[in-house]
């Protein structure tokens, strides 16, 4: 039986190898309810591998060996009886590059509902508006939902992908560099959206922008070469890190 827990995710001694290369080296941490947890670290530190493990996108990669436990609401996601598709409905993901589908804005948003059930929800239009508002996109597209999603700007496309991930009401949202390549205004809107979303879900944000982590997250994890060097409240990580490597990274002395 699942173990009752106040943590949404609890990761215990997670080790991932690709052949002889160890991508993650015994990661142990938790994701709390209604928090934004940032994962920072230089390229190749294992941030994206860690993120993809949380909704088992690592299943799609050949040659990986995974050890340890990842508990979602007390249940190990790697147990044979765990339905990976159902897990991904509860643990949504937004990627670095916006991926709107070649269809209308409305159809992009409706697709998750159509995949989830043969019968569409009666209040689909209401849910579309709610999700677009949560992504700070409603006022910009409310009069042109029938237009092609690919006609939107890059920042709008990323917010559309964010809104699309919210349509099935996930418990956790994973974001892999969601603001890379976006202008400061679009980045600010994404960050503002995250502050509203954490009231109803938990968020894991992978970012190479340490300033973004300091602005948006409640706690921050610093990964280096597959190792969890330090995890703490974001204010402590950026002002009084316990490990000198953390201080060197957040201050820009290496990265």
Global geometry: globular
Query: What is the CATH topology classification name?
Result: Rossmann fold
Count of separate structural domains: 1
What's the number of helices? Answer: 10
Structural class: alpha/beta
Known CATH architecture: 3-Layer(aba) Sandwich
CATH class: Alpha Beta
Rg over CA atoms, rounded to whole Å, is 18 Å
| CATH homologous superfamily annotation | P-loop containing nucleotide triphosphate hydrolases
* Uncertain stretches of 5 or more adjacent residues: 1-5
Terminus-to-terminus distance: 43 Å
Read across the widest sheet, the strand sequence of neighbours is 6-7-8-3-9-10
* Overall mean confidence score, pLDDT: 93
Report the β-strand fraction as a percent range.
25-35%
User: Main sheet, how many strands, which sense, barrel?
Assistant: 6 strands, mixed
Q: What is the number of E strands?
A: 10
Helix content: 25-40%
The SSE order reads EEEHEEHEHHHHEHEHEEHH
Could you describe the 3D structure shown?
This protein has ten helices and ten strands. With 255 residues, the protein is α/β, with parallel strands linked by helices. It has a single domain, classed as P-loop containing nucleotide triphosphate hydrolases (Rossmann fold), CATH 3.40.50. The strands form two sheets. A six-stranded mixed β-sheet has the order 6-7-8-3-9-10, with helices on both faces. A hairpin with a 2-residue loop joins strand 1 and strand 2. Helix 3 (105-116) runs parallel beside helix 6 and helix 4 crosses helix 6 (154-166). The longest helix is centred in the C-terminal third of the chain and has 14 residues, at 184-197. The model is unreliable at 1-5 (pLDDT under 50).
């Amino acid at each position: 039986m699942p173990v009752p827990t106040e943590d949404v995710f609890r990761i215990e001694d997670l080790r991932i190898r690709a052949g002889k290369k160890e991508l993650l080296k015994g990661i142990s941490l938790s994701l709390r309810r209604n928090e934004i947890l940032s994962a920072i670290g230089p390229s190749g530190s294992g941030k994206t591998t860690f993120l993809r493990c949380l909704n088992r996108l690592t299943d799609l990669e050949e040659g990986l060996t995974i050890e340890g436990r990842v508990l979602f609401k007390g249940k190990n996601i790697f147990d044979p009886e765990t339905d990976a598709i159902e897990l991904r409905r509860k643990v949504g993901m937004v990627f670095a590059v916006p991926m709107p589908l070649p269809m209308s804005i409305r159809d992009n948003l409706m697709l998750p509902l159509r995949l989830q059930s043969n019968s569409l929800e009666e209040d689909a239009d209401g849910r579309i508006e709610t999700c677009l508002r949560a992504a700070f996109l409603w006022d910009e597209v409310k009069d042109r939902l029938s237009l092609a999603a690919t006609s939107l700007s890059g920042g709008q496309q990323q917010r559309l992908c964010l809104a699309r991930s919210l349509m099935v009401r996930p418990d956790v949202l994973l974001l892999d560099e969601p603001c890379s390549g976006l202008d400061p205004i679009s980045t600010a809107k994404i960050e503002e959206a995250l502050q509203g979303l954490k009231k109803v879900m938990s968020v894991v944000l992978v970012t190479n922008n340490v300033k973004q982590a300091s602005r948006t997250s409640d706690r921050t994890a610093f990964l280096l070469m597959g190792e969890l060097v330090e995890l703490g409240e974001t204010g402590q990580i950026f002002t009084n890190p316990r490990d000198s490597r953390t201080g060197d990274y957040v201050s820009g002395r290496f990265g």
